[in-house]
Amino acid sequence: MSVEEDIIKKARELSSYIIEKRRDFHMHPELKFEEHRTSSIVLEELENLGYEIHRTEKTGIVATLGDGATVALRADMDALPINEENDVPYKSQVPGKMHACGHDAHTAMLLGAAKIIADMPINGRVKLIFQPGEEGGLGAKYIVEDGYLDDVDAVFGIHVWADLPSGVIGIREGPLLASADSFRVKIEGMGGHAAVPQYAIDPIAVAFDIGNAYSKIISREIDPLEPAVISVTKVEAGTAFNVIPEYAELWGTIRTFREDVRNFIVDRMKKITKGYANSMRCKAEFEITMDSVPPTINDAKLADFARRVLKNLGKIEVPERTMGSEDFSFYTKKAPGLFLLLGIRNEEKGIIYPHHHPRFNVDESVLWMGAAMHALLAYNYLEARK
Ligand code: NI
């Protein structure tokens, strides 16, 4: 039996272990940077497999095995502040918290891979990254800043994917997920009586116009073939029907596939906000409120490599891009990387809900494939570099 056949066989044999672990994580979801229970189970499972184990800051675990050229495999561990509505025996036991993105499955799949890898010949070093805080926590950024990617030659991550049928592997080169920014705009007018607007400066009227002007950046200033989104998602102003307030605020998000497009949009939003507000006698501030998440750009050579290596494991498709974002992009900025998708949609089993939905679920029968993908990618990558 070849090493690759052996990997696939072992992954299949680990199927019930992976499902059992996934259900355990699912029942005990932990939000970003609270993954204490999850990471202590990861630690326990990795013990006695021969890995050198580091606890990262903020509840992450990085485990390495071997020496030389280094391939990193990543799983994220955090859950979401959502109340689960599935009626399953392994339903979340924590009200208001749920693994509604599949990170429970990611952690379990990488634990399965850890067992396979510990048992297979490796011509280099494998680094397992159990990352905290993916959901709005920029956990990946901290892992990179702490130097864990400095000696990494290639990094792979897998996301279970509700838009792909169960067992289908999604591989796409170039941009796969978008950049994400969040912005806040504060407009200062002059309060007064709503019946005599001439004695006030109405910041709400100005906020409406600025919000509309943003949409013209997309429709009039960006190449129509280049995807970009500006969504105003929160508006706050006023206290009563007959009072013109002092302030109006807008919040929202910007999504793109290219950093130059992202920078152009931010620059235009700043100028429009300031220029329009000034012309209407208001003061305005525009700010980006959180660190920007870059777009996730898959390395073309690694995509080719993965298509070759995984062709005997399952059907491979080119998935659609999405304007959602992933902090895996911090890794792909640091080292050549590939973010793969594993289909988990199964209509017969009623597994049809999108990610972050209170009835999101995964078809567990294919999770062994995720472990096999990790191990096959690591083994073949290091063999190819020999
Ligand atoms: Ni996710």
SSE pattern:
HHHEEEHEHEEEEEHEEEHEEHEHEH
| Structural class assignment | alpha/beta
The CATH superfamily title of the largest domain: Zn peptidases
The CATH topology name of the largest domain reads Aminopeptidase
Report the span from N to C terminus.
21 Å
Q: State the helicity in percent bands.
A: 25-40%
The chain-level mean pLDDT equals 97
What percentage of the residues does DSSP assign to strands (E)? 15-25%
Determine Rg (CA atoms, Å).
24 Å
DSSP, total strands:
16
What is the strand arrangement across the widest sheet?
Answer: 1-2-4-3-5-16-6-15
Tally of helical runs: 10
Low-confidence spans: pLDDT under 50, at least 5 residues?
A: none
Supply the CATH class of the largest domain: Alpha Beta
What about the largest sheet?
8 strands, mixed
Second CATH tier, the architecture of the largest domain:
3-Layer(aba) Sandwich
What does this molecule look like?
An eight-stranded mixed β-sheet has the order 1-2-4-3-5-16-6-15, with helices on both faces. Strand 1 (52-55) and strand 2 (61-66) form a beta hairpin. Helix 4 packs across helix 10 and helix 8 packs across helix 10. With 386 residues, the chain is an alpha/beta fold. It has helices at residues 3-13, 15-27, 36-46, 103-118, 139-145, 203-221, 259-279, 300-310, 329-334, 367-385; strands at residues 52-55, 61-66, 70-76, 125-131, 154-165, 169-170, 174-177, 179-188, 192-193, 228-237, 243-244, 247-256, 283-288, 296-298, 316-317, 337-345. The chain is 35% helix and 25% strand. The protein contains ten helices and 16 strands. The mean pLDDT is 97. The chain folds into two domains: 3-177 and 293-385, Zn peptidases (Aminopeptidase), CATH 3.40.630.10; 181-288, Alpha-Beta Plaits (2-Layer Sandwich). The structure holds nickel (II) ion. The site of nickel (II) ion has 4 residues, from loops. Nickel (II) ion (NI) binds at residues 101, 103, 134, 159.
